[in-house]
Every structure is written in structure tokens, then in C-alpha cells.
Known about the structure:
Number of domains: 2
CATH topology of the largest domain: Rossmann fold
Number of helices: 10
Radius of gyration: 19 Å
Mean pLDDT: 92
Shape: globular
Distance between the termini: 23 Å
Order of helices and strands: HEEHEEEHEEHEEEEHEEHEEHHHEH
Low-confidence stretches: 304-313
CATH class of the largest domain: Alpha Beta
Strand content: 25-35%
Largest sheet: 8 strands, mixed
Helix content: 25-40%
Amino acid sequence: MKIGDLTPEELHQRFSGPGVRVRIGPFLIHLYSAIREFVADFSFAYADFPICEAHEVSDFRVRVARAGGWRLWREKQAAFWVDGALPFAVFPRRIAMPFAEWGLNWCICGYAHQFLIFHSAVVEKAGRAVILAGPPGSGKSTLCAALLARGWRLLSDEFALLNPARGCLLPIPRPVALKGASIRLIEELLPHLRIGRVFPHTDKGVLAHLRPPTDAVERQAEPALPAWVVFPTHAESARTELVPLRKASGFLRLETNCFNYPTLGRAAFDALGRLIEAAECYELPFDQLATAAGLVDALAELQPVLGCPLDAA
Length: 313
């Protein structure tokens, strides 16, 4: 059963009662909430994700709950609980969905140390993945969405999850976070995909979530091999081009985008070294999104398919 198979009332009863266990990539999230607006937003964005059985053990127990202390001159508040703890201050209830997405990011970065975790979008074609690494505002999410329009499979908008032992990337195809002008742009590029409610006045400006393609969710147990590491940088009037990087530079740049490199120590050094040795590294300054997506897309045409399909890790 998928989340989208339930009616709004069934969803409210489950989320506000026993909670819903949802499989998101390699993680099982047990989520509770009695906030109807949040349940509607989450259920829209995660409509294609499977609901797990009650006996399956969750990685994180998350509750998005109403918070007290509301006064007439303040907005209604909400709180993000994980495994019985309250790691953040309360926040406006109107942005419960974006805040829950940020909270899930915090859970994964803080505790999923079985993976080497990079701040990047990841897409795949023919079993090979491109890691789009960079800080917020670099354009990686918008470029990721543009590549979906060219037939690439979404592995992640936010994280590259590298299995250090096997050297493969695990999918976690959560909703793609779009900001500002990117919302309208991606609506035009991907008219067959749906974008959820627009949230103004968040910490990251105007924000909306692109629902992941159904195929990406159905194949979320299929890993991919890293073949390219691209560091995009969006800037007006920039010349849009792929600039090859020496592997040493690629190693250092990707290390700075790694959340848990110090935690994993030598295992991280070895795994990152093997990834960089197997991948081609590029910088990608760009002004024109379509041109940038075309350059990345061409990489898959230039390099022949090697190896055999991976089993799920």
C-alpha cells in the first residue's frame, strides 16, 4: 500500500493515531502528526512511497505536533520531535512541511553514519550516477530537476549516500526543494510532475516541493555507481561550460561537502579516494539552465556503460 492509496480522512486517522511507517530510501520513518495541513502536504509529496507493516522497526520516530504558548499577536506554532527529544525550537505551523524536511535531513546527517554523506543532488542514467555537489544557492536542485526532464532518474535532491564498503550510491528520492524563480521554471520543464503548496517567508525564502517521479520511488532500492562529480555554480552572465578538474582538487572539494567525513575517519578517506579515482570531476559555472543540463546529459553519451547492475545494498 502507498500513502496515496488512502483518503484524506484515513490519512488523518493514521497520522494522528498509530502513525505511519513510510519507507524512504534505506530508511524507515515512523511519522506522527495531528496537524491536518501538514498531513495533507506530506501525503501529497510522498504519495508514491510505500507504507510499511507495523512490525517493521523504524530508524526514526518523528512527531510534528502543535506547540503551546500561542497568543493572538503570534503565529500558531509547531514542534519537531524525534525519538522523544525536541532538537529544535518551535516554528510557525504554516511551514511545518519545509521544517519537517529539514528535520529529516538533520536525522540522517546526525545518525546515518553507515553511509558517507555528501551535500549534493544525485541523478542516474544507465546505472551510472552524477553527483551534483555544492552549497545552498549553487543551483544543484534546479539542475537536478532539469536533468529529470532529460530522462535521468532521481536518486536524491539533498544527499549522496555512499556505501563505503561497496562504493555504490543509495537512492533516497525525496521531494525536490525548489526556491523562488526556480518554481515556475521547473513547472515549465516538468509539466507532468506536480509541485506542492508554495511556502512564502521561510528561512530559505519562497519554497515549494516537486513530487518525486513515480519511477524513482518504485526503484528506490536500486543503487548506482558514481561516474561523475560535478560542482555547479549558478551566476548571471557566467559562461556555461564543463571545466575538467584534477582528481586531487575533486577530492578536496567533495570532502568539504561531506557531512560526516571526520566521524568516519580513515574509512571516509579510503571511500572518497575510491570514488574520485572511479569518477570524472568537473566544475560547471552556468547561466543558462538548459545548456548546463545538456552538457551533463552529454556525459552519459560519451562514456560507455561498464560493469553490471548492482543489487540493493
